[in-house]
Amino acid sequence: MKPFLLSLAVLASCSLGAQVPSSQKPLTATSTLVLVPALVHDKAGEPVYMLSASDFLLTDNGQPQALRVEDDAGNEPLAVVIDLEVGGAGTREYDKLGALIPMLEALVGGVQHRVAVVGFDSEPTLVQPFTAKIDSAKDAILSLQPGCTRQNHFSNCEGPDPVHDASLGDNGAAILDSVAFSVSLLRAQPARYRRVILLISETADRGSKVTLDDAVRAISDTNTSIYSIGFSTAKSEAAHYAHQQLPTGPGTPAQAADESRTMPPGGVELFDRANHIPNPPTGCMGKIPEQQLTDDPDQNLGRLSRLYDCMGQLMPPLLVARVAAIAASNGLKRNAPETVARLTGGEYFKLTNAKSLERSLSVITNHLPNRYMLSFQPVSPQAGLHHLSVKLIDRPGLIVQARTTYWSDDGNAEAK
Questions:
Q1: Proportion of the chain in helix, strand, coil states, percent, rounded to 5
Q2: Which domain holds residue 379?
Q3: Segment 16-66, tens digit of pLDDT
Q4: Is the backbone of residue 181 left (phi > 0), alpha (psi -120 to 50) or beta?
Q5: 126 occurs within a structural domain
Q6: How many domains does the chain fold into?
Q7: Is 198 among the domain residues?
Q8: Is the CB of residue 271 less than 8 Å from the CB of residue 253?
Q9: Least C-beta-crowded within 10 Å: which of 109, 157, 185, 283?
Q10: What is the CATH number of the domain that holds 87?
Q11: Nearest to residue 83, comparing CAs of 381, 398, 340, 402?
């Protein structure tokens, strides 16, 4: 593999649990090759095989790229982090996770593998370091004890009622901190390993210390795919911790917004506050009609994410990247597990009961070894977040799901 330019740093300020030294510095991985995992399936959801590079059109910030399909990617060794929420709303869903144990072997398949287990509430904890022993990973999952929260009251919690429970875990849901922590664990694995995170959590991040910008940067590692299974936090008492960090929000026009807001170069907001969601169905920058909005953040976000392709035709590359960054931050606020899956080329599923978890894991088990691994060397490297688009050429009826972002720390680009 050729030397690389893509770099990624995980913040030392993230809460990484007791097993990570406090003096750890940000890690950086470099390469000249951008890897884009892509799943192609028919309308029935069955994977499609035997496609070649000529069947794909890949753009980087709107610019077409010469690509290749890496051979036999599904047989490469696999490193998996099982990242489970055991605090917050996760305590309500703990009894639904039983299907994960018997399916763990099928998930990693017959290839050389390593599995780690992370549990998180307001901070992530490494429960099981990487091991080739599936039974050790199973035991680690079984050992996880849900925390004492307002949603649940366990016999080992102190206090007269759930509101006054002492925290064994706690009521936090630091999803982004835990994902950044899991990415850092994977980055230490050998380069030849495919890197996967299986995240099971609520949809709303509550309590992460990592900023939205750095979370987007952390999950834009080109060689880590995140498969997420999420359950709703619509009844959560806590507001999303990152509300004030978003560049725009609903309400009044940006010109009437808080005077302390930082304006981009030129002094003009990219989006006004009455038109805060980029690329709705009425046009690239149009506002979504109220009657088209639903109470389901997954549906609304999915509708938006499918419309990015028109931006490449209307905007210069750097503006496309800026829009991608804003949308990624907005998505992390709306539904963190769905957004990290979309950004990394993984998949997102809803958890409703134990059977739905079993079905979701079956789909992941089928799709994981059957993805195409596309690769390219950027034609015009630029530092920062890049928006990727992958389409199929003359393949009606087929659907492609692929990574939508990557982060570049190109030193040459930064010097321009």
A1: 35, 20, 45
A2: 34-244+316-415
A3: 333 333 333 332 334 468 889 999 999 988 999 999 999 999 999 999 999
A4: alpha
A5: yes
A6: 1
A7: yes
A8: no
A9: 283
A10: 3.40.50.410
A11: 340
